């Protein structure tokens, strides 16, 4: 860090004339800092959380002006533990953290097998952070009532994320309203995947969660919750302003149809049911989310425009209950994240269509959704054929964004990354309104990640004159980090064609 500080000092030594970094307008400096933070790789333990201001510390040491400008960026986010994971911050510091926008709180260390104490000083300091908008919790013990009370008193808090939740402690007070809270996420997933300790009192936990949700249901606009935590009591709550509802991890036991979950969400716009298998099997089975005799979702959610479903069969009952005016539909495979030291297998419990026949049947069962402008169709274990793309073109004439994807196990399956056959382009041209094509590849091994496949994007832009953007992504099945998208626009054609992937060239040689 000292070397970086010296480098910055040399870069910004004042000479006659010119523009200096500390003299730039605040909005321009903000863009510079944002780029630096995006490029930074400094990660808190194992990549689960990122401290976005670390890279600006050397810059803050160049002069007083830069220190004043960078401080809000450096201290907009803070963790309650120290970098080495051995201790929490001294109590005397908490009273100084007034301009934070994000606080991450843990009661245990990931780097070392040690416990981190949640102190009364921290509880008292939280309500005094006048600009605090987001808090994330990762606790092994049940959430202390004192912590919930302190967070409820933060008038500016709008986002609360509770990971690896344990809610089977004392009952939540009924007066914790969280007045500014608009987004709430509660999930069981943590650093050890979705495995939970066996001594959780599930009945008490569900009662406590319903009490907690009842306090905030009137003003939430976004809710993400694990299906493991849902009970029939959830269906009795009224969600007057909820616009986005995400249910993830595992389906509730006993089963609750989707129509029952959303029956009291009149303002809902976006619905995501992203269930994964509780016990991954070598031959995964689809997860049912709708009832065969269920009512149309339009009866309860007249404003619903987007639906996402994971690991469903080609004849999933909910297909017939989706509103005809739906604009976005996303069908995808999903799996539970696992800890880094756990061996993964070929199947992670994600369900994929077994061959093109099932995929075609799924397209037929959603063909009534002819107003779709955005379609994700990625539950394949092999590359989708050009015939399947033609069926998509026939069924969805309004389509503007199409996302296709499949799993890759060996190098030879990389060939579709670059669309070597002309009939793929001919099929894609039939989607007259297509403006954005997205392609994602699920991979088990890092060696299959070939980074940005620019040559494939170049060919697509060249062959499809109305296409405006092409995006590629490699989804690492063992990683908990968000997968990265590589996107190109038509300016790519202003340059020579990028080189091809070596595996694609070898594949074509073998076919000749």
From TrEMBL:
<protein>
    <submittedName>
        <fullName>Uncharacterized protein</fullName>
    </submittedName>
</protein>
<dbReference type="InterPro" id="IPR032675">
    <property type="entry name" value="LRR_dom_sf"/>
</dbReference>
């Amino acid at each position: 860090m000292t070397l970086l500080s010296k480098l910055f000092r040399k870069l910004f030594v004042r000479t006659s004339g010119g523009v200096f970094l500390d003299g730039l307008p605040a909005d321009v400096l903000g863009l510079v800092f944002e780029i630096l933070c995006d490029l930074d790789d400094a990660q808190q333990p194992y990549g689960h959380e990122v401290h976005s201001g670390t890279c600006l510390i050397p810059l803050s040491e160049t002069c007083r002006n830069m220190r004043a400008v960078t401080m809000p960026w450096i201290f907009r986010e803070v963790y309650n533990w120290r970098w080495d994971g051995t201790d929490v911050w001294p109590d005397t510091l908490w009273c100084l953290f007034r301009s934070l926008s994000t606080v991450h709180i843990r009661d245990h260390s990931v780097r070392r097998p040690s416990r981190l104490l949640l102190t009364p000083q921290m509880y008292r300091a939280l309500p005094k952070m006048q600009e605090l908008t987001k808090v994330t919790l990762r606790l092994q013990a049940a959430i202390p009532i004192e912590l919930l009370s302190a967070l409820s008193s933060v008038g500016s808090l709008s986002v609360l994320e509770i990971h690896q939740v344990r809610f089977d402690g004392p009952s939540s007070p009924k007066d914790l309203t969280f007045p500014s809270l608009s987004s709430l996420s509660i999930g069981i997933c943590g650093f050890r995947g979705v495995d939970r300790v066996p001594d959780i009192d599930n009945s008490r936990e569900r009662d406590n969660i319903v009490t907690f949700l009842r306090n905030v249901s009137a003003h939430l606009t976004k809710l993400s919750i694990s299906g493991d935590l849902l009970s029939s009591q959830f269906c009795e709550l009224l969600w007057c302003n909820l616009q986005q509802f995400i249910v993830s991890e595992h389906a509730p036991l006993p089963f609750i149809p989707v129509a029952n979950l959303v029956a009291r969400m009149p303002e809902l716009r976006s619905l995501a049911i992203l269930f994964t298998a509780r016990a991954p099997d070598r031959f995964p089975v689809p997860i049912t989310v709708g009832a065969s005799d269920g009512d149309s979702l339009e009866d309860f959610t007249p404003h619903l425009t987007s639906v996402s479903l994971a690991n469903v069969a080609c004849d999933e009952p909910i297909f017939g209950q989706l509103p005809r005016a739906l604009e976005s539909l996303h069908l995808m495979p999903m799996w539970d994240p696992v800890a880094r030291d756990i061996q993964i297998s070929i199947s992670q419990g994600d369900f994929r269509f077994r061959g093109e026949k099932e995929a075609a049947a799924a397209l037929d069962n959603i063909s009534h959704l002819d107003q779709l402008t955005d379609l994700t169709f990625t539950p394949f274990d092999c590359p989708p054929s050009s015939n399947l793309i033609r069926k998509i073109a026939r069924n969805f004439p309004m389509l503007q964004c199409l996302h296709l994807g499949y799993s890759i196990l060996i190098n030879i399956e990389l060939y579709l990354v670059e669309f070597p056959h002309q009939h793929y382009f001919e099929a894609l041209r039939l989607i007259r309104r297509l403006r954005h094509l997205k392609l994602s590849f699920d991979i088990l091994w890092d060696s299959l990640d070939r980074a940005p496949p620019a040559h494939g994007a170049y060919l697509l832009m060249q062959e499809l004159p109305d296409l405006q953007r092409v995006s590629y992504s490699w989804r690492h099945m063992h990683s908990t980090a968000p997968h990265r998208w590589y996107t190109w626009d038509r300016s790519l054609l202003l340059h020579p064609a990028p080189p091809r992937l070596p595996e694609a060239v070898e594949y074509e040689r073998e076919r000749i």
